[in-house]
Write a structure and sequence with these properties.
- With 276 residues, the protein is of the alpha/beta class.
- The chain has a single domain, classed as Ribonuclease Z/Hydroxyacylglutathione hydrolase-like (Metallo-beta-lactamase, Chain A, 4-Layer Sandwich).
- The chain has a five-stranded mixed β-sheet. The chain has a five-stranded mixed β-sheet with strand order 8-9-10-11-12, with helices on both faces. The chain has a two-stranded antiparallel ribbon with strand order 1-4.
- Strand 8 and strand 9 form a beta hairpin.
- The longest helix has 17 residues.
- It is globular and about 50 Å long.
- The relative contact order is 0.14.
Length: 276
C-alpha cells in the first residue's frame, strides 16, 4: 500500500492535510504476525484482500479512499496463501487478534471462519454501522459470520501498561491498549524469555517516528498517540523490546536480527537469527 506523506508523519492540519497532500510515500509493506505457540498458532492482524482492486470495493463517496490511499494486493499476497507458504493451514489458526479494524489490518478476516477473533471492545463499537463507515472502516465488507470477541482490558499490569489481556493461557502473549491511531487500537506483546516482541499495529509508521515521538496524520487526538508512544518507550526502557509496526520496511530486519529499541536493559542486538 501507499498513503499520502502527511498520513505517515503528521503535518499541520491533521486529516485535512492528508486529504489535500499531493505527495505519496513509497510502497509500504502490510505486515501480519504469526506466533508459533505451544497452545497453537496465534495470528496478529489479517492483512488486506485482493478485492481492493475491484472498482467498487472502496466507497467512492469517501474522500479518504478517493484521494489518500492506494492498494496493490494480489490473490497470492493474501494471508491465507501466505500462511500456506510457511506450512500453516488457515484452519489451524485458532486465535486471531486484530489491532484495529482499518481495512489493511482486517481485510483478510474471511480466511478464518473457525477462529476466535479478538479485538478491543472500544474498537468494535467504533467500527460498526454508518458511523464507522464515515470514519473509514468497512464493516459492510466483514464476513457475515464474523462475531469478534471483545476485549475489555482488566486491571492486570504488564510492564509499563496498567491494563492488559492474556491472549495465551500461559500469559506469554498479552494484548495491551495502545489508543491513538484509532481510539480502540491495541498491540500484542510476545514475551520470550528476556525479550519482548512488540507487535505494534499502527502505533507509529516506523520505529524512527516512535523514537522521535511523531504521531501520524489520521490519529483523532495526537495527544493520545503521544501518550501511547511514551508508554511503549517506558516499557522498552524497563524490558528489552523489539518494536514491530505493521508498515515499517525495517520491521522484518529487526525481527530477524532481534534488534531491540535503544534504552532497554540489554544490548541493541541480543543475538542473530531470530524467528521467521
Amino acid at each position: 500500500m501507499r498513503v499520502r506523506k502527511a498520513q505517515r508523519r503528521r503535518k499541520p492540519g491533521g486529516l485535512l492535510r492528508v486529504l489535500t497532500d499531493t505527495e505519496w510515500t513509497e510502497w509500504l509493506p502490510i505486515l501480519t504476525w504469526l506466533i508459533h505457540h505451544p497452545e497453537g498458532p496465534i495470528l496478529v492482524d489479517t492483512g488486506e484482500t485482493a478485492r481492493t482492486s475491484e472498482p467498487a470495493y472502496f466507497p467512492r463517496w469517501h474522500p479518504y479512499y478517493r484521494r489518500a490511499v492506494e492498494m496493490n494486493v494480489r490473490p497470492e499476497d493474501e494471508i491465507g496463501p501466505r500462511l500456506e507458504e510457511v506450512g500453516v493451514s488457515p484452519g489451524d489458526v485458532r486465535r486471531v487478534v486484530v489491532t484495529h479494524f482499518h481495512t489493511d489490518h482486517a481485510g483478510g478476516l474471511q480466511h478464518f471462519p473457525g477462529a476466535e477473533i479478538f479485538a478491543a471492545q472500544r474498537e468494535i463499537s467504533g467500527a460498526v454501522g454508518w458511523t464507522g463507515r464515515i470514519q473509514g472502516y468497512l464493516p459492510h465488507r466483514w464476513p457475515s459470520w464474523f462475531r469478534p470477541v471483545p476485549i475489555s482490558f482488566p486491571e492486570l499490569p504488564f510492564g509499563a501498561f496498567e491494563r492488559s489481556f492474556p491472549v495465551s493461557v500461559a500469559g506469554d502473549v498479552m494484548a495491551v491498549p495502545t489508543p491513538g491511531h484509532t481510539p480502540g487500537h491495541l498491540s500484542v506483546v510476545v514475551r520470550d524469555g528476556d525479550l519482548d516482541y512488540f507487535l505494534a499495529g499502527d502505533t507509529s509508521y516506523t520505529q524512527e517516528f516512535l523514537l522521535a515521538e511523531i504521531p501520524d496524520g489520521v490519529s483523532p487526538r495526537p495527544s493520545v498517540t503521544l501518550e501511547t508512544m511514551g508508554r511503549i518507550l517506558a516499557h522498552a526502557a524497563a524490558h528489552p523490546t523489539i518494536y514491530l509496526p505493521s508498515h515499517d520496511p525495517e520491521s522484518v530486519a529487526r525481527l530477524r536480527q532481534e534488534k531491540t529499541l535503544p534504552g532497554g536493559n540489554a544490548p541493541a542486538v541480543r543475538r542473530g537469527g531470530g524467528p521467521g
